[in-house]
Structure formats: C-alpha cells, structure tokens
Specification:
This protein has 16 helices and 15 strands. The chain is α/β, with parallel strands linked by helices. The structure holds pyridoxal-5'-phosphate and iron/sulfur cluster (SF4). The site of pyridoxal-5'-phosphate has 10 residues, from strand 5, strand 6 and strand 14.
Length: 464
C-alpha cells in the first residue's frame, strides 16, 4: 500500500495528513486515481467496471483510505452499496458525452497532458458558479480582504484553515470537488491565524466560529490549537461556540483515539470546554452504516467525554440515502450515541449533481416520513434545507392556498436576519431541485426577499 505522497489533489502545502508512528495504531494511507489497480477489493469487479471507474476518476476527485475500504464498504453489495457509491467514482457521474470522450482518450493511451486538458474542460462545465458564494461573503479588516474566511450570517464566521483543505477520503457528491482537483484554488493569507483572531476581536456580535475545510480534522492538533487556544483570552469572551465541521469520525476515527496527537486533541477540547466554550463537532453523516463500527463508537465516546457535543448533518442523495428508512435509522442511532441530529441538506448545484439530486417534493416526503417515525429527541433535525445565496431555505411542506398547490418555505438562516422564520410560498413544481427553480405562488412577481437580496448583491460586487 501507499504512503501519502504529494499528488495533484493536495492543495494544502506539505503533507496534510496525520501519519502515526506507533506500530499498533493504524497508519493513515491514501489511494488516489493513480492507484485504483492497487486496491485489492476492486479485483472482484469486471475489467469494464474498473475501466469505467478510471474514466470518471480522471475528471472527478478520488481519494480513499484503507479504513473506509475495509470497514465501511460492503463488498458483497457492490456497486449498489451506499458507502461504495459515496466514495468510488460511478459511470453515471459524468454525462454520457463527457464519459465517452474521456473513455476514448484512455483507450487510445493519450498522454497526461491531453487527458488533463479534456478533464479541465469537462470540469469547468460542471462548476457553474466558480466564484459566486465564496467571494461574496469574504470579510474585510482595515480595507484588506480575508480570503480564508466567510462571514455571511451575522453571528457565525466560517474559517478555512490552510492546513485543513483536504479530507481523509473524498465524497463523490462533494460540492467542494473543484477545489480538490485544483480548478478552484482557495486563497489563504500567510498569517491566517493572526487574521482570524484580529477579525474575531473586531466583531463583538459574532458568537460562533465554524472551522471548516475540506476537513479541519486532517490538521495536526498543534495547528488546530494555534487557531483555537488564543480564543481563551478575555477579548474573545463573545466567541461562545466553536464548531468544527468534520467527517473524520467516520472516515478516520483514529484521529480521536490512537493517532499520535489524539490525546492532545482531547486535552484541547477539555480546555476549551472548561473555559466555558461550547465545543461542537458538526459531524457529517450520510448513512447509519457509518455509525456501526466499534472504532467509530470508541471515537464518539472519547470525544463526548471531553464535554464536546456532536451534531449530525448531511445531504440527501440519490443512490446513497434517498429512503426515509435510512434517515429514521440514522437519526435514531445518532440519538442513542449521544449525537444531536441537526440538518438534512439538499444537494448543491455542482459537479455530479445530476446523479445525486432528489426533487424538492420528494426530499420533503422523505424528511416527513423519516421524522414522523422518530421520537422528539431526534426531531431536532431540520430540513430539507438549501444553502442558497439568500440564505438557508427549508421546505416546510406542500399544501394548497386558494386552490393553488404550493411549497411552504422559510429561511432558517438569512443574509438579512429579519427574513428568518417568515413563511413564504412557491408554486408547486414536482421537478424543481433548487431554490432558483421555484416561482412565487399567488401570481406574485417575486419572492419577498428578492429586491433586498439584489441590492445586497449589487453592493458587494461594486465594493471589490
Ligand atoms: C449553515 C451556515 C452557517 C451556520 O448556520 P447555523 O444555522 O448557525 O447552523 C454559517 N455560515 C454559512 C455560510 C452557512 O452556510
Ligand atoms: S468529507 Fe466533507 S469536504 Fe470532504 S469530500 Fe466529504 S463532503 Fe466534501
């Protein structure tokens, strides 16, 4: 097997992964698209299936570690297995003409330059909003922009630490895929910790810091501590909650148990909790199958013993979890393990979305059916929620108003906090999969928030 080497999917400088030195602890390794033929379990697939996988992996990012291969995927149920669909490239993820084009190049034995050129062309078409959201929400301090941060909702600052921009394994649906193949470079400051702290100190209305990535838990604990330990100082009293978005609990649970700096991580969490901070791991789950392994359960127990809280969130995806029974069991398992169900997301408009998307109407049915099967303790899961430009918009239901079939919607988060919790209505459309497919109901020309949102957009694009 392969140790981590620098390959084109890594955008963080240096080796972003934790490699343990103890002989008893599992060592982190990754396979990428160049190592598909070295994964023993793939030998049970046909030559054609393996070739198809190579075709898709030439365009979309692929990265997996042995824990996921050995403990999460049910190899007797491949290719339908949801964990296999979540991590391995599938032929339907490319549009037929793109697939054929890349397959042709590989069959002809085209050189790397030709393959990369074709891959980049296909990628650019799959990434319709390369800048959009990201640039619009970048905060400024003393006239300087802070590209490693986003500040969209008043009380929460998102921070992308430069060492946390990759993951232990990549999800096939991930909306961050463009950054993993290097067509959308994130920009960072050389002193991102200093800038984070200066910015937070200047924003007394901010209560939450959300560390995100990639996966910030690919970072060594000492890097994480550089960002977080200074928040114990009195000038950060207003930062009450530190959230860390991660999939490491299920993709590399050893990060919390046997990795060389796992103990340091526990001490860091304990220290933050003891100082009165709410430390929340926003754990990303797609299927209850990720929560069955003893290694994961040990990691959850250990992390919770520090006083940190774990909340569960993840998108609804065709081929992986578009089934109410999967969500019911996921939420029940979470509650049993002390994890608080938080969000069911709608898949975003990028990458292989055509493969994963579920119509909003169907998403709401799945949510409703699943949430009605669980006790009140699991009904903390909100959704289906679209993280769109104006805010997080939840489909609350489908009903009739004055004889017109409509979606009932609300903002869970709004670019203007005043939009939050105001119900609004859109014409029912069985095929709509995103907010921008929806039209106002009742013959209205626009949604109530649109004039203000356009004004905000105009303001931000004029500014820089
Ligand atoms: C979801 C999200 C947050 C956090 O919102 P909560 O409702 O507090 O979970 C913050 N910033 C952005 C850009 C988000 O998408
Ligand atoms: S772990 Fe999160 S950031 Fe990483 S590939 Fe999966 S969804 Fe994307």
């Amino acid at each position: 097997m392969l140790n981590e080497t620098t390959h084109r999917l890594d955008i963080a400088n240096g080796s972003p992964v934790a490699v343990t030195s103890e002989s008893s602890a599992p060592r982190f390794k990754v396979y990428n698209e160049r190592h598909l033929d070295q994964i023993p379990q793939l030998q049970r697939l046909s030559d054609e299936q393996r070739f198809n996988m190579q075709v898709v992996a030439s365009v979309l990012p692929f990265r997996i570690n042995p824990y996921v291969i050995e403990h999460l995927i049910d190899w007797d149920n491949v290719p339908d297995d949801p964990m296999f669909q979540l991590t391995f490239p599938q032929p339907g993820m490319l549009l037929p003409e793109d697939f054929e084009r890349m397959a042709d190049l590989l069959r002809k034995g085209a050189d790397r330059i030709a393959i990369k050129a074709a891959a980049d062309e296909i990628r650019i078409r799959l990434n319709p909003h390369p800048a959009g959201q990201q640039q619009m929400n970048v905060p400024h301090l003393d006239g300087e922009s802070l590209p490693g941060m986003q500040h969209k909702y008043r009380e929460t600052v998102l921070f992308f630490p430069s060492q946390g921009q990759t993951c232990h394994t990549y999800c096939t649906f991930c909306f961050r895929w463009a950054q993993f193949v290097g067509i959308q470079e994130l920009r960072f400051n050389s002193n991102d910790a200093g800038q984070l702290h200066s910015y937070l100190a200047s924003q007394p209305q901010v209560s939450d810091l959300l560390m995100t990535g990639g996966d910030p838990m690919v970072m060594k604990t000492h890097h994480l501590a550089e960002y977080l330990r200074p928040l114990l100082q009195p000038e950060f009293e207003h930062i009450q909650t530190i959230r860390i978005g991660t999939k490491a609990l299920t993709y590399w649970p050893f990060r919390f148990t046997s990795d060389a700096d796992a103990d340091d991580l526990m001490r860091l969490c304990e220290q933050l909790v003891a100082a009165g901070k709410h430390v929340a791991f926003m754990a990303h789950y797609n299927h209850w199958r990720e929560l069955e392994q003893p290694q994961v359960r040990a990691a959850i127990r250990r992390l919770r013993s520090t006083g940190a809280v774990i909340r569960g969130q993840g998108p609804l995806l065709a081929h992986i979890n578009d089934d109410a029974a999967v969500w019911t069991r996921l939420w029940r398992t979470q509650v049993r393990l002390g994890i608080i169900p938080y969000y069911m997301f709608v898949e975003r408009d990028t990458g292989a979305r055509h493969y994963f998307e579920v119509p909003l109407a169907r998403a709401w049915e799945i949510y409703r059916e699943a949430i009605s099967q669980v006790s009140g303790l699991a009904r903390t899961a909100r959704g289906p929620s679209m993280s769109a430009g104006p805010g997080k918009v939840e489909v609350q239901g489908i009903t009739e108003v004055n004889g017109e079939k409509v979606f009932v919607l609300r903002f869970i988060q709004g670019r203007n906090a005043d939009w939050v919790q105001r119900p609004f209505f859109a014409k029912f459309d069985p095929d709509a999969t995103w907010l921008d497919h929806l039209k106002p109901a009742g013959g209205e020309a626009q949604f109530f928030f649109e004039p203000e949102y356009r004004a905000i957009q105009a303001q931000t694009s004029a500014g820089h």
